[in-house]
Amino acid sequence: MTIKSEPFVVNVGPQHPSTHGVFRLRLTLDGEKIIDADMIMGYLHRSMEKLAEERTYTQNIPFTDRTDYLAAMTGNLAYVIAVEKLMNIEVPERAQFLRTIMAELQRIASHSMAIGIFANDCGAWQTPVMHMFRDREKILDLFEMACGARLTLNYMRIGGVSRDIPDEWMPQAHKLLKELPKRFAEYEDLLLSNEIIIARSRGVGVLTPEQAIAYSVSGPMLRGSGVAWDIRKADPYAAYDKLDFEIAVGTNGDCYDRFVIRLAELRQSLYMLEQALDMMPSGPVHQRLGTSTVQPGTQPIAPLAFRPPVGEAYGRIESPRGELGYYIVSDGGPSPFRFHIRSPSFINLTPLKLMAIGSTVADAIVILGSVDIVVGEVDR
Amino acid sequence: MTTYVTGIQLAHSIDGQFPDAVEDGQPEFAVVKSDNLIEVLTWLRDDPDHAYQFLSSLTGVDRIQWFEVVYHLESFKHNRAATIKVRSDDRENPSVPSAVPVWLGAQLQEREAYDLFGIRFEGNPDLRRIFLWDGFAGFPLRKDYLNLPGGKRPGLERFPGEPGDDLSGRGTK
Amino acid sequence: MEDTGTVVAFWILAALTVGAALSVAAVRNLIHSVVLLIVSFAGVAGLYITLSADFIAVVQILIYIGAIAILLIFAIVLTPRAGRLNQEGFMLLPALALAVLVAGTMIFVAFDTSWAISERDGFEETATAIGDLLLDKYALPFEIASVLLLSAIIGAILLVRPEGAEEGPE
Amino acid sequence: MDSVDLEHFLVIGAILFGIGLYMSLAKRNFVGVLIGIELMFNGVNLTFISFSRFVESAEPLNGHIFVIFVITVAAAEAAVALALAVLLYRLRDTINVDQIDLLKW
Amino acid sequence: MAIILSGEWYDLRDLANPIRELIDALGAPDAVDYVLWSLIAALAILIWLVVSVIAFIWIERRLVALMQNRKGPNRVGPAGLLQPIADAIKLLLKEAITTRDADRILFWLAPIIVFIPTIVVFAVVPFGESMVLADLNVGVLFLIAVAGIMTPAVFIAGWSSNNKYALLAAMRAIAMLISYELIQVLALLAAVLFIGSMNLQAFVSWQDEYNTWLIFILPLPVVAYVIAGAVEINRSPMDLSEAESELAAGYHTEYGGIKFGFFYQAEYMAGFAIAATVTTLFLGGWTLWGLEEWIPGWIIFLGKLYAVFFLYIWSRGTLPRLRIDQLMAFAWKFMLPLMLVNALVIAVEVVVWEETGASRNVALPAIGAVNATLAVILVIGWARVLGHGSGLQRGYRATLTREIGKIYYTGAEVS
After folding, report:
1. Where would you tag: which of A160, B11, D30, D73 has the fewest CB atoms within 10 A of its CB?
2. Out of C35, C58, C125, whose CB is closest to E156?
3. CA atoms of A92 and A117, how far apart (whole Å)
């Protein structure tokens, strides 16, 4: 029985438990059904692209931490890859492996959060998030050992990484790798066949592969729609070409698919990490880029300022949320002439309206949770 | 491994299909005339030899003399990537055709470029400000936004700490 | 009923019931009116208890407060543009006169008639006896009541069914 | 005032009935009319129960049975009335009984 | 000494008895006696409720913290024991904000109305042999009827806040509560059919006399009642009307300070009410197979009550939330037919037992076994009929591949 009722506008956000930050979704409802959805963003806009035009290339690395603050390593990596492409720098082998390891650890940390918060959006009261935090903490401990920071890592440098890992790092990492499969099995047991999660997410927010490609979505959203596309495989960077792994794809393109893909990618990341830790070569971790003009006489590992040649480069990687690209235009000056972040969170939001219309309020929250946005990256 | 198609190659193949459509071909990118943009992009998407179904990124650049919009394209079929640009010489009211009819994913990115550069995308169904509020004065990513005294523009010309003239902005020379 | 407790309870409940009922007619806001109606229903339920009709009292709460008041609230909420005012129409004075007349007559009759008052006390247990009666002496009306309820449900569903609604579940 | 008799309950029943009658006749809003009808039902029920309690009878619980049937009818009536209100609102955009003056629409 | 020797010493442990003796000893007139006794009992229930709520705020937070790999409150007082009190003081000291466009009277009234049903329920609950405030003949019906008052209270709270989340939550709450009230009634109907009385003390004495608990004889109604209870007290997976991730705080979004505290407390009290009902009706109330001779009945009762309430804490720490249409479908399509069939079966069983006059040692295990089997068959069978475990209700793992650019989409089923 449907009773015709008045259109009813509900603002989800900017301050709302499930918008994952200050993001606003204006839903027009007919009863509980969504008939229109409008995204309003910019509450966290920090004009990074403009600021970056005022800093040197090295000074810009900390900005890349602060876009996707749940995956700072991949943010760093995408930016340094873009600059290295611009300057044609060869990165030492060990640095490549370190970058890969850090990026995969970061992917596990980020996907853990995404899965936990997705379950939270389905209504689980914090428990999955808290369990996921447990793993994430261990990974952040490893990051802290490697670079001294836990969240905004600032670890990658143009030409390598900021420093080599300490001696205790490898045993610690091996210990973690032994622990994690048990945890992942537990999560798969608890979440994958959870009746309520299935009921809430299957058949909700469906994107066909044609729609997914047309809407430029990337990462787990694209793969959830059944398109086997992963930049790590398609256009390997760092040391991914030396590692064996599989791409997880979904078959239905719904929220459940995006969620199971993240669970499957945890396993794949673990598999990659095992290989990478075994294959890790020794050697320098940084390619020197000439001398810094800041402190003549000393040789800092990454010069604070340098002038890349005139030109442009688009460096991209597969971040946990999708294709993270940095488009950098150089005019030969010490800072980028144009610094653009192709942020997956932002572009993955494009089909939100398409997915939300026709579903209910509760579904919209689940869809937003399955897109897995980080508002720092949406607004930049 | 993704093949990065050079702009020169791309310019040649576009030229073969649409004479007069190509404005420039550089190693990194090909520049298309704004009048022919939509047909070129549609052709690039639909032609089985190119099949750039995926618009990876769309953004604007303020080149001071002109504005350009950059399209990074991706072909899943051939695992190929290419870069197309289109220019708009109008400093005050730059405008290029919207790519939304070709790739729906351009929707939010065009809004972003409009918001920060003021580039009008003709044909975009929902061209509103996205990060900044309606009525925000100016377009902040333009190089002349908030000019410094003496017509200088923000941006680093020299290394920090390096002796030199104070604050000689870029784009003035 | 000379028991002090009952007498005190009666006067309190009577004041509550009548006061709430009068306010129902007087307040301007329909939602307030329904809330006061709930109070009035509760007062009537209390009066039933003083009349030792415990089953009916509970049923009164269950049906009137738990169901009918909710239906009234639904009727208000589902008609948002119709206004929430509880004002009178042109029939104000005639209705008032008629109501006073009818109530007055009934009160007069109540006092004027010499009722055959029985000497028995209140009922000990009503639920079982009512159940027996319903399934024995009043079995037919009971069945008819169930048919009535069924037809009311079907009628209500048919009435609000959107035009051109497709057959079967959505 | 020191004892409560049948007349007291009858008076309350009559007052409730009167208020209900007034509301169902005078109120403009359809829901107001419904409220009036419910109040009238309550007055009648109270009268039934008090007769059942006080008046000499071979089968004293008959009043309770009647009340149960009245409550049943009231519930059914409320459900249908809700449907009617929604239908009226959908057709006429108002549930003001003054404005529902067409015999056919 | 004399009391102990007379063998009535355990009477003292039943708190009601000494108090009654005391009041009788005063020699006051009946009316005063009655009022005094009612006041003491009501006050005792209130104090117990408040203390329990305060204790359970701490217990729930610690337990859920345990389930979530964290410590929970551990700063205020030893092991964080004073945390609820600190919370209460914080809530009391907060400014009582009334939003500008709220309906002021109803906005303030709602937290109070919400309290009424949750407290009044305990009037009919027998805590011990003589510890019941009002020994109503229609106690079971009273439980349901009073719980029904919750519905308008929640609606008033949601509507008067003039907040869209709150209104949406209020509408959800009404729809949910009405649907699940039906399930509650049918579940209790099964029990009442079996016992043949609606008096709660009669339930306890029946279970004492027959030396069994109704949960063993009527498993399905118990489960249904606990689930419907979760709806009534807004516990996950049915906490839709205060769905944190969807509607901020649901119908009490606009409430702050002590008014919010009222809702919070009322929710716990309603939880205790549900647990008390389950304990009394299905778990033997204050009896424990003769142990009530040695342990005061009210301790047994409270132990069972807290054990039932733990179920709700557990589910809150474990389960995600359903969607409103799924919740309604569960009530109307799944539970309602099941409960109707169940009630019919139990009625038949009662008649058969009466007709055959079988001894209780034969009849009760037989009925219990039949009901348990039937419950399993009904639940699984009806779930299969409704398509559970197939189509959209089936989980799976992601497909793994090494090929790039291939499309694995097989066509989505849309809910």
Report:
1. D73
2. C35
3. 37
